Amino acid sequence: MTDRCPNCNAWIYSYDKGHECPPLWLVQCPEYDDETWDEVYAVAAEYAAESWAEEHDRNCSYMMLDGETIVVRVKRDPNDGWCVDNIMMPGTDFKTFTCSGEAVPTYTAEEIVEETDDNN
Ligand SMILES: [Zn+2]
Predict the structure, then answer these.
(1) 0.85 cut: is pTM over it?
(2) Dihedral through CA 47, CA 49, CA 54, CA 59, nearest 10?
(3) For residue 96, how far is its CA from the centre of ligand 1 (angstroms)?
(4) Which domain, by its residues, includes 34?
(5) For residue 83, is it within any domain?
(6) Which residues have beta carbons under 5 A from ligand 1 (an ion)?
(7) How many domains, the chain?
(8) Mean pLDDT across the stretch 99-109?
(9) 69 part of a folded domain
(10) Distance between CA 32 and CA 6 in Å, rounded?
């Protein structure tokens, strides 16, 4: 039995009793909107940028899969309680990332059931 965390939207398995949401980041894309910072839960700034870019690209006809890149800024949410040495401290200046996409080929196989010939 799985469910999604109402907070960070991560999959939570019934045997996973100790779910803790990852740090909260704020992501902004100055090319599109230099006012709004969107909230993204991720284990690191880089993954927050990737997650934001993926969601953005889904809403923009997958331009990034055609080679477009976007630049985003990522900073810690100043109100987030996470405090880990190897990630940026809340409220510090943003980091800047260039985001690009790549389409991964996927192959599927589906059995074709031959129709039986009733005339024989
Ligand atoms: Zn969560």
Answers:
(1) no
(2) 150
(3) 25
(4) 21-99
(5) yes
(6) 5, 7-8, 10, 21
(7) 1
(8) 93
(9) yes
(10) 28
